Amino acid sequence: MKKISAFLISLLCLTSFGQQDETNKNFKKVTETETYSTLYSDGKRRISTSEINEYYYNKQGKITQNIRKTFYKNEPYAATRTTYFYNDKNKIDFTETTLLKDSLKYRTIYTYLNGAIQKKSTTYTSNNNLTNYSESFYYNQQNELITCDFLYSVMDLYTENRSRNLKATYTYNKKGQIIESDWTKSDSTYKYNRIVHFRNRKGYRTKAKVFNKNNKHLKTVTFKYVFDDKNNWIIMKHYEKKQLTKAIYREIEYYE
């Protein structure tokens, strides 16, 4: 249960907090290292690595591969490799993901309607723990993600059947940037339910307010950036009540 849960929640975070398109499309490889700050009982804060993502691109600006490594208590926990395959119209046909620890493979299939993504979906079954997992993403005519639905259940020899159904809807501004993520239709185990995003004129998020199912304000996260000479961000820091809680560092390799 633990592996599927961590993998799923990470996917949700990636979807919810995606940034705008970069100002420079000449990426060859991008390495993102995500760290978080934890306050311990001795009153000291310590920095730990939560995940490292490597993204590879071709000269047309299309992503070709993503290698993702997650950590638990600063130790390697899981790793996945996703390869992207394109059709004759240079649109993603499907992706193939391998969970490197147990060599489990699954595909995510993309379907299109009038040239726009209509849906991408994944499903797999793992016999080891009687795990069933599926995810579905639905898009509008502007190729904006509007709804996602994650469903999985796990049963092993030592626990009863456990299942989760997480649903989210997304709202965009006129520039196609996410301004709200709504999880109110998710099951009760998901902690936060609605996130409102605030952006500056360049489209970068400056603040996010988090609310629960009863519309009670839970916390506010602010964002600060450092940019390289090509105007792409290389450091993004998250603050809560002026305290650094998370930072993402990027190394960007460009095509010449």
Explain this structure.
The termini are far apart. This protein has about 260 residues and is mainly beta. Helix content is about 5%, strand content about 60%. The chain has one domain (about 1-170, about 240-255). It has a 16-stranded antiparallel β-barrel with strand order 1-2-3-4-5-6-7-8-9-10-11-12-13-14-15-16. It comes from Neotamlana nanhaiensis. Keywords: Signal. This is Sugar-binding protein.
How is the topology of this model organized?
Layout: H1 2-16, E1 27-39, E2 45-57, E3 63-72, E4 75-86, E5 92-99, E6 104-113, E7 116-126, E8 131-139, E9 145-154, E10 162-172, E11 178-182, E12 194-199, E13 205-211, E14 217-227, E15 233-240, E16 243-254
Antiparallel strand pairs: 1-2, 1-16, 2-3, 3-4, 4-5, 5-6, 6-7, 7-8, 8-9, 9-10, 10-11, 11-12, 12-13, 13-14, 14-15, 15-16
Summarize the structure.
With 256 residues, the chain is mainly beta. It is built from 1 helix and 16 strands.
Low-confidence stretches: 1-21
The strands making up the biggest β-sheet line up spatially as: 1-2-3-4-5-6-7-8-9-10-11-12-13-14-15-16
Strand content is over 45%
Radius of gyration, CA atoms, in whole angstroms = 19 Å
User: What's the tally of helices?
Assistant: 1
In total, the number of domains comes to 1
Shape: globular
Query: Considering DSSP H and I runs of 4 or more, what fraction of the residues is helical?
Result: under 10%
Give the overall pLDDT as a whole number: 83
Largest sheet, if any?
Answer: 16 strands, antiparallel, barrel
Q: Ends: how far apart?
A: 45 Å
**Class by SSE composition:** mainly beta
Order of helices and strands, N to C? HEEEEEEEEEEEEEEEE
What's the total number of strands? Answer: 16
Protein name: Sugar-binding protein
Keywords: Signal
